[in-house]
Amino acid sequence: MLSCFHQSEHFPFLGISDSYSLSDFRCRTTFYTALTRLLMVDLGEDEDEFENFMLPLTVSFETVLQIFSNNFKQEDVKRMLIGLARDLRGIAFALNTKTSYTMLFDWMYPYYTRAVEQWYGEPACTTPILKLMAELMQNRSQRLNFDVSSPNGILLFREASKMICTYGNQILSLGSLSKDQIYPMKLKGISICYSALKSALCGNYVSFGVFKLYGDNHFDNVLQAFVKMLLSVSHSDLLQYRKLSQSYYPLLECLTQDHMSFVTNLEPPVLLYVLTSVSEGLSTLDTVVSSSCCTSLDYIVTYLFKHIAKEGRKPLRCREAAQAGQRLLHFMQQNPEVLQQMMSVLMNTIVFEDCRNQWSVSRPLLGLILLNAKYFSELRASLINSQPLPKQEVLAQCFRNLMEGVEQNLSVKNRDRFTQNLSVFRRDVAEALRSDGSTEPCSLDMMS
Predict the structure, then answer these.
(1) For the chain, what percent of residues have pLDDT higher than 70?
(2) 8 A C-beta contact, residue 260 and residue 200
(3) How far is the C-alpha of 126 from the C-alpha of 78, rounded, in Å?
(4) Average pLDDT in the 394-404 region?
(5) What's a GO cellular component annotated to this UniProt protein (predicted)?
(6) Contact (CB, 8 A) for 167 and 193
(7) Torsion over CA of 297, 298, 300 and 301, rounded to 10 degrees?
(8) How crowded is residue 167: how many other Cβ atoms within 10 Å of its Cβ?
(9) Which of 72, 161, 294, 401 is the most buried (most CB within 10 A)?
């Protein structure tokens, strides 16, 4: 029985002795991942075997709950809680089938957020708890595809929403932090929350329309927590800290793909902040971030283009969607430089830089050109006129070839045609601009 051999008397590092530092507790995650994989070899659907395996952790779990209900010695309960969170994360990581994951879910539910409330200012405590939550939200191997009669997907999301909201509200109360404190004390936790939320939004195990239908505010609350945490982070920090950027931008990609009604309902300053973050992310060297920015921008531009195309002929039943589109259109009309700046960034990337994600860049660029034909003409003229006369006609032909056969729509076929044209355009422009000692490369940025 594996349950007999993973206790502190056999493995001292599983105890709460202060002879081990909190950083040493990280090995417990690896230990339990390995141990659980051994259990999974013959586990099948044997719930009794799983319960026996979890007995030592059951004792720890119940002890923590009991201590929280009474006066407690903080250091001891902290170490116990950190160890338990790391142990459970290791177990959750190894459970990649629906049957085994459901056993763990039934064992754990409901979760408790009091530890996050109590020690939100101590990353050594909150980080393992948040990472456990993020792991539980991962739908690897479709392990969270619960039965149709099961509410577990919604229950899981509700608990995650509570924890993210609790952590978000508490962490914002810390106020301003020094440069060396801001990541470990604040940004690391925010990045984990964003990663967990992204897993939930893209996991396909929660029908988010149910929350509004039944008046449940957990979805709205977690989105508001996302906004509050985001506004407390500077644009420079979003890009400077890699783990934060690689959790924020994929999350934004999910929001723009499936929840544009939320995006269009953002207050104008918040929406401007989000779009500025996309604009700055487009030019980053991190291809994960820049590709996510391209995809998010494509969803936004496509949404806006479709709204304009259907404007005036929406049936009454689509009035709410029409109003959302109108809000976004009004914002763009009030802030035309937003999309213009992003078009300029993408064109600069194509013409002057080593573009490693050309396909991703091409998708939003077509929509930007169709929505901003006049500004695109100005960019084209700017580049052409900056070159010596012998090159100007060559570049003009390159731009004509770019739009050859491209129609005024965003169908998949039309997008693919533009992507092919863009590949040829980039090659031909590079040849035309190849330095011959007579000119310096210019920039297409006309916003300054």
Answers:
(1) 87
(2) no
(3) 10
(4) 93
(5) cytoplasm
(6) yes
(7) 110
(8) 24
(9) 294
| Whole-number Cα distances in Å, 356 to 245, 288, 346, 432 | 18, 11, 12, 20
| pTM for this prediction | 0.89
Distance of CA 166 to CAs 53, 119, 172, Å?
31, 11, 10
What's the mean pLDDT in 170-189? 91
Helix ranges restricted to H, 119-151: 123-136
C-alpha–C-alpha distance, residues 365 and 343, integer Å: 7
Q: Answer yes or no: are the C-beta atoms of 66 and 49 closer than 8 Å.
A: no
Longest dimension (CA), the chain: 84
Q: Give the DSSP letter of residue 5.
A: S
Say what the pLDDT of residue 71 is.
Answer: 57
Other CB atoms within 10 Å distance of the CB of residue 113: 18
CA distance 382 to 209: 47
Q: Rounded to whole angstroms, how far apart are CA atoms 102 and 143?
A: 8
Q: What confidence tens digit (pLDDT) does each residue in 343-372 have? A: 999 999 998 888 888 999 999 999 999 999
pLDDT of residue 12: 54
128: left (phi over 0), alpha (psi -120 to 50) or beta: alpha
Residue with the bigger pLDDT between 292 and 13: it is 292
Inter-helix orientation angle 152-171/218-231, to 10°: 30
